[in-house]
């Protein structure tokens, strides 16, 4: 265990350098908090592994945002934060639809593999890595993740090339075209999209319509729009980044 003074020094160094190795060391040092809080809420209709995953995600985000100079110890700062995220998880879980058997089975495998990868690397695997490990398509991985209501669709992520729009395996809720700084290059790449993809971009990010509304206009399902949105973002990321 790292003592509080050493940890604060590492937090300052991470804020200065953005070194992921330092972040991972801090996450490893404080992972016990995620374990304790996950165990505290276990046995209430949600599996411990799910709770630990959510708590771990909240811990990582907390490590990335924490400023040791704000006058509050990290443990004091992170405990109510993780607790609030877990409570939101239960709220969302209560609204979840019953999973199809095949999706539920895949979700369980994804959860197990994600936890194992996180324990080894300190970060979550990407959709591509999960696809290769589990031997299923990236589309099926994303479908299984979309059905996992407890996971927030607003989370930020990290991909193979560094920070991205998802937190590795969390579904896109906001494709975040504003993250591309060169708007002219973005416009050029959008012009290269096929007609359906252009319509999705226009309806979703120019007119601000929901995925369900876009689906009705195009005569497709909301799921189709969600998948198309992901593919468009990945295509643009590959072209611009």
Structural class by SSE content: mainly alpha
Query: Which regions contain 5 or more consecutive residues with pLDDT less than 50?
Result: 148-182
Main sheet: which strands, in order across? Answer: 1-2
Mean pLDDT: 76
The total count of helices amounts to 11
Distance between the termini: 38 Å
Compute the gyration radius: what is it?
Answer: 19 Å
**Total strand segments:** 2
**C-alpha geometry:** globular
What percent of the residues sit in helical stretches (DSSP H or I)?
55-70%
Task: Outline the biggest β-sheet.
Answer: 2 strands, antiparallel
Share of residues in strands: under 5%
The succession of helices and strands, N to C, reads HHHHHHHEEHHHH
Describe this structure in words.
The structure is a single chain. With 241 residues, the chain is mainly α. 66% of the residues lie in helices and 2% in strands. It is built from eleven helices and two strands; from the N terminus they run H-H-H-H-H-H-H-E-E-H-H-H-H. It has a two-stranded antiparallel sheet with strand order 1-2. A hairpin with a 2-residue loop joins strand 1 and strand 2 (162-164). Helix 2 packs across helix 3 and helix 2 (20-41) crosses helix 4. The longest helix is centred in the N-terminal third of the chain and has 22 residues, at 20-41. The two termini are 38 Å apart. The model is unreliable at 148-182 (pLDDT under 50).
Task: Provide the descriptors you would attach to this structure in a database record.
241 residues; mainly alpha; two-stranded antiparallel sheet; 2 strands
């Amino acid at each position: 265990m790292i003592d509080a003074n050493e940890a604060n020094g590492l937090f300052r160094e991470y804020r200065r350098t953005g070194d992921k190795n330092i972040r991972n060391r801090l996450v490893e040092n404080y992972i016990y908090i995620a374990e304790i809080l996950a165990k505290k809420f276990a046995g209430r209709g949600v599996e411990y592994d799910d709770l630990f995953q959510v708590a771990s995600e909240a811990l990582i985000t907390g490590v990335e945002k924490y400023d040791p100079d704000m006058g509050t110890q990290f443990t004091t700062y992170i405990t109510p934060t993780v607790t609030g995220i877990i409570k939101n998880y239960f709220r969302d879980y209560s609204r979840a639809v019953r999973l199809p058997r095949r999706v539920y089975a895949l979700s369980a495998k994804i959860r197990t593999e994600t936890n194992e990868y996180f324990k080894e690397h300190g970060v979550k695997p990407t959709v591509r890595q999960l696809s290769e490990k589990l031997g299923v398509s990236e589309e099926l991985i994303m479908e299984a993740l979309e059905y996992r209501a407890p996971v927030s669709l607003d989370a930020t992520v990290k991909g193979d090339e560094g920070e991205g729009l998802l937190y590795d395996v969390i579904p896109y809720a906001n494709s975040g075209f504003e993250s591309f700084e060169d708007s002219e290059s973005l416009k050029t790449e959008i012009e290269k999209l096929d007609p359906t993809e252009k319509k999705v971009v226009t309806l979703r990010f120019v007119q601000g319509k929901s995925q369900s509304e876009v689906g009705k206009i195009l005569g497709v399902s909301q799921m189709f729009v969600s998948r198309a949105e992901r593919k468009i973002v990945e295509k643009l990321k590959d072209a611009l980044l």
